[in-house]
Design a protein that fits this description.
Layout (H helix, E strand, L loop, with lengths): L1 H15 L3 H7 L5 E9 L3 E9 L10 E10 L4 E3 L3 E4 L1 H9 L9 E3 L5 E9 L6 E11 L5 E13 L20 E9 L17 H16 L4 E11 L6 H23 L6 E6 L3 H9 L6 H8 L5 H11 L1 H10 L7 E9 L5 H10 L6 H9 L6 H13 L4 H13 L3 H8 L6 H13 L3 H13 L5 H18 L1
Parallel strand pairs: 5-6, 11-12
Antiparallel strand pairs: 1-2, 2-7, 3-4, 3-5, 3-8, 8-9, 10-13, 11-13
Helix pairs in contact: 6-7, 8-9, 10-11, 11-12, 12-13, 13-14, 13-15, 14-15, 15-16, 16-17
Length: about 475
């Protein structure tokens, strides 16, 4: 009776406010499994792993029950022998009640304990494509459920493998100097006929911030050295060419001084040029517009007339369109284009290359991606990410596409492999890789033709691949 009252009181207390002790016991969401090895022999499935409770605490009144299951894709499942770990009080209680034999695999909890698990069960056809999972249940006093969690252990696929691909890669050439550049366009506004920058004038705060952000994106990187900054200023075509030339030149010099003073750059680092009137920008707008008399306006823009005469002709011959251009288009022709040239140091450490890949992949060369990949386990997440990121950074590179296709074949992603091979060119390695893809797609005649071509082009792996395909073709013919 006393025991029942105690359990009821404990259950109420746990419901209203979990004790700090039990909360600590549940901080670890799951146990850890090591040395997982699920194998099939002719008639049996062998499951082996080690349960580690390092960092997982089982309270004195608690019990942790681990129930492995094999779960098929069609809904079939088989429960394997379970393992239970009980805290001191719970373990003694179970023994006193004489229930020790009712809980198979019962163990008393010890800090950081490990438990080897090994079982063999009869193999059944539905297990061909299935998964192994571990269902964990943590309970407290009076069998109150404290937490439940299902841990994926392994995916099983015992289907017959018809072809074993051996992908090949191409090592990219290392760049002598890693020269890069970034560019942008800012619309710094000036009062009429002025060449002095007023940072708070109109939208200048935002436009100047664009230039600063571009420079900062490389200047703050310790691996980057800025080699030059180019600024080119443009004015719009209205007004006299001579005055527009003065404005374009003066405003460009003003922006140069602003940037140089903001960073204390040496004077020769920043190079400037200017275009007195941006007729090319005007032409691009008109060409892509639906302006009335568009072709006639383009004819004036493309004519041999002097700039002032061209502007006058547009103003007098097309007054309505000119007013629209003057209001809506000409302000955008007053802009400053800038370009930051820089060089990046070479990376040789694979771990560092992986870090850079996840933060600034644009700083890596194809060769650096490849250097890191060679140091990793084929098919691992980082390995796959390296080739996928490399082809994203260099989408038109035949080498990047070939290597990405080979990586995709390793992980069984034939759809991606085919997409990359479409841009991989006609190198011997690309021909051989297309043979791998065809063989995995079970198009054996095509695969054999590709492998025989690759063998003639001296791909070392091609003859063995061709023999493998011939053997598969014979087996397929016998089945018929």
């Amino acid at each position: 009776m006393k025991r029942i009252i105690y359990c009821l009181l404990t259950a109420v207390f746990l419901t209203l406010s979990s004790t700090a002790k039990e909360k600590k016991a549940l901080d670890a969401v799951s146990v850890r499994l090591d040395n997982v090895k699920i194998e099939r022999s002719e008639s049996f499935l062998h499951c082996n792993f080690t349960v580690s409770l390092a960092g997982y605490k089982v309270g004195t009144d608690q019990e942790l029950r681990l129930r492995p299951f094999i779960v098929g894709e069609n809904g079939n499942e088989l429960e394997l022998p379970s393992v239970s770990v009980a805290g001191r009080s719970r373990f003694i209680h179970l023994q006193r009640l004489g229930k020790k034999t009712d809980i198979p695999g019962l163990h008393r909890y010890r800090k950081d304990m490990t438990l080897p698990y090994s079982v063999s069960v009869a193999y059944q056809p539905w297990m061909e494509q299935s998964r192994v999972e571990l269902r964990e249940t943590s309970s407290g006093c009076c069998a109150q459920i404290l937490s439940e969690y299902t841990m994926p252990v392994d995916r099983l696929d015992f289907r017959e493998i018809f072809f074993e691909a051996v992908p090949v890669f191409i090592a990219p050439t290392a760049d002598a100097v890693k020269a890069r550049s970034l560019s942008g366009r800012a619309f710094v506004d000036f009062p009429v006929n002025k060449t002095v920058i007023y940072p708070e004038y109109h939208d200048n705060i935002a436009e100047l911030a664009k230039i600063k952000a571009s420079i900062d994106s490389v200047r703050d990187n310790k691996d980057i050295t800025i080699t030059s900054i180019a600024i080119k200023g443009f004015a719009s075509p209205e007004g006299s060419y001579k005055n527009n030339e003065r404005l374009a030149k003066g405003r460009t010099e003003a922006l140069k001084k602003y940037v140089r003073d903001m960073y204390d750059f040496r004077n020769d680092l920043i190079k400037t040029s200017y275009e007195p009137e941006d007729w090319e920008g005007l032409r691009d707008y008109v060409k892509n517009s639906d302006l009335r008399d568009r072709e006639a306006i383009l004819a004036v823009i493309d004519s041999d007339l002097a700039p002032d005469a061209r502007d006058n002709r547009l103003r007098t011959a097309f007054p309505e369109q000119y007013r629209f251009l003057l209001k809506e288009v000409y302000p955008g022709l007053r802009h400053s284009d800038y370009k930051v040239d820089y060089i990046i140091r070479t990376y040789t450490d694979p771990a560092e290359i992986v870090r850079v890949m996840y933060t600034r992949p644009q700083d890596l060369t194809l060769n650096e991606f490849f250097v890191a990949a060679r140091a990793l386990e084929p098919g691992s997440q980082e390995y796959n990410d390296l080739f996928e990121t490399a082809v994203r950074m260099y989408p038109d590179s035949e080498i990047a596409n070939l290597n990405a296709a080979a990586s995709a074949i390793i992980r069984g992603d034939l759809v991606s492999a085919e997409r990359y091979l479409n841009k991989a060119g006609e190198t011997p390695e690309a021909i051989y890789t297309r043979g791998n893809l065809a063989a995995l797609q079970e198009d054996y005649p095509k695969a054999l033709e590709q492998f025989e071509r690759a063998a003639k082009l001296r791909i070392a792996e091609a003859p063995a691949a061709a023999e493998q395909v011939r053997a598969l073709m014979k087996r397929k013919a016998k089945r018929k």
